Amino acid sequence: MRNYSSHIEPISLGPVIHIANHSQRFNLGQINPAFLAEPQIMPQLFSRRQTFFTNLLGLTDNSAMSIPTHTSQTLAFIGGGNMASAIIGGLVKQGTPANQILVVEPFEETRQRLISQWGVRALAQADAALKEAGLVIWAVKPQTFKEAAHATAVFCQEALHLSVAAGIRSSSIAHWLGTERVVRAMPNTPALVGLGQTGLFARSAVTPADKQWVERVVATTGALLWVDDEALLDAVTAISGSGPAYVFFFIEAMVEAGVKMGLSADQATQLAIGTFTGASQLALSASEPPSVLRERVTSKGGTTYAALTAMQNARVSELFQSALQAARQRAHELGDEFGA
Ligand SMILES: NC(=O)c1ccc[n+]([C@@H]2O[C@H](COP(=O)([O-])OP(=O)(O)OC[C@H]3O[C@@H](n4cnc5c(N)ncnc54)[C@H](OP(=O)(O)O)[C@@H]3O)[C@@H](O)[C@H]2O)c1
Question: Which of 20, 119, 168, 310 is the 20 to 30 A CA-CA neighbour of 146?
Answer without folding.
Answer: 119
